[in-house]
Amino acid sequence: MSEYSFIAENYKIITDKLGEAMLKSGRSDAVRLMAVTKTRSADLVNFAVSLGIGLLGENRVQEFLQKYENYSKKCEINFIGGLQNNKVKYIINKVDMIHSVDSVKLAGEINRQAEKHGRVMDVLVEVNIGREPGKNGISPEEADELCDVVSGLSCLRLRGLMAIPPAGSGVERYFADMQRMFTDRKKHEHFDTLSMGMSNDYALAVKYGSTIVRIGSALFGERK
Ligand SMILES: *Cc1c(COP(=O)(O)O)cnc(C)c1O
Questions:
Q1: Rounded CA separation 128/56 (Å)
Q2: CB 64 within 8 Å of CB 51
């Protein structure tokens, strides 16, 4: 089987599973499938887009900038990886949303760059829901304060929350925690996006209200 038909087959499996999970959870809203592109060639990414995937997830600024010129560009691009303040300027006019806002400083820099480019940037606050040391994301206790700061910045639009819970059998509890946090914060205007669920757990994430599942290996195969 060629790499392309492998991806096409995986795409069908994933969309079937997503549809099934949506039905089972009785949800009437929508979930979006994001193709996570790290380590994949622009060619493979463009093929995924040609299948109907309208949303790409980028982790690494340098790799993204190298591939970006070769993207067919008929889709949305979100930044989902750890982001250093000094790299914001390179992506500010190339992405539609940033999922990884986890500090006041980073929010301030994105706001500053967005203002410079005369745009408003959609952002998610990333929550370290498993309270794992050394991991990106703001602690659950500090999330409210950061959401309030982001809401107050004129060139940011707070769209919701993102999480990468600890992998493994305990993940369901963290998805439930995230769903509760998300629902509790719907007082924020435009708050409509809950980004959680990856290759191993996306169906479960749908059960807990995820609106974007971020899928790499289940679509493209294992990363080398
Ligand atoms: C790599 C990555 C994913 C996708 O991981 P898979 O397990 O390959 O689906 C999702 N979200 C983030 C932030 C990632 O870095």
A1: 22
A2: no
Residue 142, pLDDT above cutoff 80: yes
What would the DSSP string read from start to end of 57-68? EE--HHHHHHHH
- Cα dist from 36 to 73, 106, 146, 156, whole Å: 15, 22, 26, 23
**Ligand 1 residue neighbourhood (C-beta within 6 Å):** 36, 38, 59, 80-81, 164, 198-199, 214-218
pLDDT at 45: 97
Q: Pick from 17, 61, 63, 80 the residue to mutate for probing ligand 1's pocket: most ligand atoms within 8 Å of its CB.
A: 80
Predicted pLDDT of residue 40:
97
Structure tokens at 133: 């040391």
**Residue that the structure tokens 């952002």 belong to:** 123
Confidence of residue 48 (pLDDT cuts 50, 70, 90): very high
Task: Let me know: does 67 contact 45? Beta carbons within 8 Å.
Answer: yes
Q: How many CA atoms lie within 13 A of 2 on its CB side?
A: 5
Question: Distance, CA 118 to ligand 1 centroid (Å)?
Answer: 31
How far apart CA 110 and CA 87 sit, in angstroms, is 10
In contact, 151 and 158? CB cutoff 8 Å: yes
